[in-house]
Design a protein that fits this description.
Elements lengths: L11 H13 L4 H51 L1
Protein name: Toxin-antitoxin system HicB family antitoxin
Length: about 80
């Protein structure tokens, strides 16, 4: 995969913490930051899937009823 250079300005304390955490994980600073971004994206996907499951659990019957009513209406319109 091609690498792209990014630049960011952060407080000196944050930069120091990032360097230390990268070293703790035996990663370069760039690889550490890339890993954080990927972990964040994966976490967002999981939160979205959890929210979708909760939505369907809460409103699934209502959505099914609306879909059934729409199908019945379309069938009735075709019959006339």
């Amino acid at each position: 995969m091609a690498k792209e250079q990014l630049g960011a300005r952060v407080d000196a304390e944050v930069a120091d913490l990032a360097r230390k955490r990268a070293a703790d994980r035996n990663l370069s600073l760039g690889d550490y930051l890339a890993q954080l971004v990927l972990e964040d994206v994966q976490g967002m996907r999981q939160r979205a899937m959890t929210a979708a499951d909760r939505f369907i659990g809460e409103f699934g019957e209502l959505l099914d009823a609306a879909e059934d009513a729409q199908a019945a209406s379309a069938k009735e319109n075709r019959a006339t």
